[in-house]
Amino acid sequence: MGIWLWVVATVGQVLVALVVAQLAGRIPLSGSSYQWASRLANPKIGWGFGWLTFCYLAIAVAAIDNALASQAFMPLAGMAPDEGAARTITLAVLLAQAVLVVASTRLVSLINSCAVGLELVLVVAVALALAVAVAVTGRGAVGNLASRGVTGNSADYFGVGGGLMIAMIMGLATLVGFDSAANLAEEAKDPFRSVPRAIVGSVVAAGVLGIVFLVCLTVAIEDIPRITASESPVAAIMREQLGPAMETVLLIAVSFAFFGAGMVVMTACSRIVFAMARDGRFPAHRLMRRVSPRTRTPIPATVLILGVGVVLMVALPGTALLKLITASTILPALIYGATIVLYLAVRRGLDRRKGAFDLGRFDLPVAVLALVWSLFSLFALVAPAEAHLPALIVVGLLAVGALFFAGLLLFDRQALETEPADAGGGGR
After folding, report:
1. Among 21, 366, 367, 349, residue whose Cα is nearest residue 193
2. What span, in angstroms and rounded, lies between the C-alpha atoms of 391 and 384?
3. Average pLDDT for residues 94-123, to the nearest whole number?
4. Which residues of 234-248 are buried (b: 16+ CB within 10 A; e: fewer)?
5. String of b and e for 403-416 (b: at least 16 CB within 10 Å)?
6. pLDDT at 115
7. In the Cβ-directed half-sphere of 327, how many Cα atoms lie within 13 Å?
8. Cα-flanking dihedrals φ and ψ of residue 77, to 5°?
9. How far apart (Å, rounded) are the C-alpha atoms in residues 356 and 374?
10. Is the model's pLDDT at 9 over the cut of 50?
11. 68 close to 255: Cβ distance less than 8 angstroms
């Protein structure tokens, strides 16, 4: 039944993406929501957006690469599940991504485009192959789509924080990060049109193809309890239905796709750091705002993201790391919800640029529906008892940011009260 909630999650995130695209088409600057809030509300509110986004993206890089290691690369290499090995592989992937991000934004774009293209082709091909396999062999069941799985006998399945609500988190976790395109707006061609299209298009493509793939995977399950207990359930379904060869092909594609996704998130996070540092609003801003004259990339900011990932992999024990990754799913819900509130507050004063992305008269109903969805998704994330500790971690991250913010107010208040002279690109 969780699949149908994934459909709802896709529709909701498309609405959110449309609102984000409205802002991206008017203020195409590196920093996305940080820039929008700084220029449309005030720099103090913008700083809050920026800090939340930095925390979310910095954790997300490590989370994506750790998933690459444990869910794709290790099964591909025939390695038994091992947390230590997964962390070592994650560190190697982080280093490789940082080198590429520093080397060239164009190279990052090329690798990501190839990864996305390969992923789209394989998702369609594998979905068709699974459908044919189930039809020919009869191993699988359409009834799986309405099954409650291993939580079927749970008394609170339909309750707050129960199995049905938790199932939606899968959709929420995989349909975030679409605003990364806005963080690269200053490096894009015709950002007033191309960036909004990239934002909306990524959610629609991921949502539609993801639903098709999940439906085919779910129907192809023979033994739900056994697959649920598997360390790599997708690989297990592929192996049972299509054989080891197809499983290998899929794992190669998934590894490449994860690598590209992690690299893009690292790039986006480094641009957030650079944007805040350029305005004097990030720790060690004189260093973090430096851009290499040769590669035209913010090397210190990228190295910082690499350092955060290394610390997370080396210092945090397994349970703590898992809780931190879970906490990072709460952060984008906060950011997107706050971005929608910002848009509703300033929409009447926004410039309408000819040729730019614009919802026209539909912007208000879309924004209201997106806000309702964001509030519901945030509630779904924090309602389960298991989410209470991750919620406290989010509070802790906010507290750390508040200390630096207080320091700015005391020792560099001007940085939070004025905008740089190069703040062009749109506004009221």
Report:
1. 21
2. 11
3. 86
4. bbbbbbbbbeeebbb
5. eebeebeeeeeebb
6. 78
7. 23
8. -85, 0
9. 25
10. yes
11. yes
Q: Which tokens hold the place of 301?
A: 């900011």
Mapping DSSP onto H, E and C, the string for 34-102 reads HHHHHHHCCHHHHHHHHHHHHHHHHHHHHHHHHHHHHHHHHHHCCCCCCHHHHHHHHHHHHHHHHHHHH
Conformational region of residue 58, where left means phi above 0, alpha means psi within -120 to 50, and beta covers everything else:
alpha
> Using an 8 Å Cβ cutoff, are 203 and 178 in contact?
yes
The SS3 of residue 117 is helix
What is the rounded CA–CA span in Å between residue 47 and residue 43? 6
Tell me the CA end-to-end span of the chain in Å, nearest whole number: 45
pTM recorded for the entire structure? 0.82
User: Distance between CA atoms of 193 and 205, rounded to whole angstroms?
Assistant: 18
pLDDT classification of 183: cutoffs 50, 70, 90: low
State the pLDDT confidence band at 100, using cuts at 50, 70 and 90: very high
Cβ count within 10 A of residue 122: 20
* Mean pLDDT score, 286-307: 94
DSSP letters, 344-368, are HHHGGG----TTS---GGGHHHHHH
CB 94, CB 69: distance < 8 Å = no
3-class DSSP assignment, residue 240 = helix
Query: Is the pLDDT reported for residue 121 higher than 50?
Result: yes
- The single residue listed with the structure tokens 């430096």 is 290
Give the Cα separation of 256 and 258 in Å (integer). Answer: 5
| Torsion angle of the four alpha carbons 267, 268, 273, 279, in this order, in degrees rounded to the nearest 10 | 120
